Amino acid sequence: MSGIIISGKELAQEKRIEMKQQVDTLKQKGITPGLAVILVGEDPASQTYVRAKQRACEQTGIHSEIDEVSPSITEAELLEKINVLNDAKHIHGILVQLPLPEHISEKKVIETIHPDKDVDGFHPINIGRMMTGQEGFLPCTPFGIVEMIKSKGIEIQGKHAVIVGRSNIVGKPVGQLLLNENATVTYCHSRTKNMQEYTKSADILVVAVGKPHFIDADDVKDGAIVIDVGIHRNEEGKLIGDVLFDNVKEVASYISPVPGGVGPMTITMLLHNTVVSANRRLK
Questions:
Q1: What's the whole-number mean pLDDT along residues 262-281?
Q2: For residue 239, what is the enclosing H or E element?
């Protein structure tokens, strides 16, 4: 019997309906949640992603601003733009779309965004809050992954969670969030020996390795929960993930698809963080 699909697309739609109600309530109290996005350069993938964020804001009633700037902008000029947004009372969330041109320090940009407006959850202060279980903004993709698992009523506590990938954006933080939910967490990466021994022991397997069809059915324990973070285009132009979906779904109890899995939840949790920020401003 095939595994049950965990549809991030459906869950995102449900959460955005709830969010619109929250936004309407805030507007009645005189606050419209505002998200500002700075897009440096003309990277097609970044442009597509930013447009998707803008549409999501429109659906939920969140005010959005997009500042498209030349890739030749200096680091000092970009940091000044961020500081203006830090002081802007109508903006509750700031996001600088990555990647950035080589002459601009990603680290400086992230650290310049005020932690209370860091709705991407990348600022070291918010990362520290996540590590220590304090209130702060959680990174959007890992946050969305945990929400997907919880949406099916799956008990995380006591489960063995294996994370394939250790990026700062997904791998490391999703492991920490699952640890915060009392899972036992193992990280696998490019230097891991006998990786299959770890993946086959996972009750929850999160694959964020960035390699198409890296995980097959032989790598997965019967009845495991499998979350696929990867997204690639094959030779036919079809979107595929890090997991060989058709094979793995036959052994997994739950599995997320590509597309329609983690992707829609990333933007949704960004909006969620923006609404939370506006609520905090109200309080």
A1: 96
A2: strand 239-240
Which H/E stretch holds residue 276?
Answer: helix 262-282
Within 10 angstroms of residue 263's Cβ, the number of other Cβ atoms is: 23
CATH class of the region 140-263: alpha beta
Catalytic, 97? Answer yes
* Residue in 53, 81, 159, 221 annotated catalytic: 53
Catalytic residue among 15, 22, 81, 97: 97
pTM: 0.95
**Pairing relation of β-strands 254-255 and 4-5?**
parallel
Beta bridge partners of 68: 39
All residues at 6 or more sequence positions from 38 whose CB lies less than 8 Å from its CB, including other chains: 66, 67, 69, 78, 81, 82, 85, 94, 95, 96, 97
143-184 residue pLDDT tens: 999 999 999 999 999 999 999 999 999 999 999 999 999 999
Q: Is 117 a catalytic residue?
A: no
Residues 6+ apart with CB under 8 A from 190: none
Do the domains spanning 30-114 and 140-263 agree at the CATH topology level? yes
The three-class DSSP label of residue 67 is strand
Angle at CA of residue 243, ends 240 and 247, nearest 5°:
100
53 is catalytic: yes
Per-residue pLDDT tens over the stretch 67-76: 999 999 999 9
CB 34 within 8 A of CB 87: no
Domain boundaries, the chain: 30-114, 140-263
| Nearest alpha-carbon partner for 93 in 283, 264, 272, 262 | 272
Which CATH code of 3.30.70.420, 3.40.50.10860, 1.10.472.10, 3.30.450.20 fits the domain covering 30-114?
A: 3.40.50.10860
Strand partners, 228: 207
In the set 120, 203, 219, 228, the catalytic residue is 120
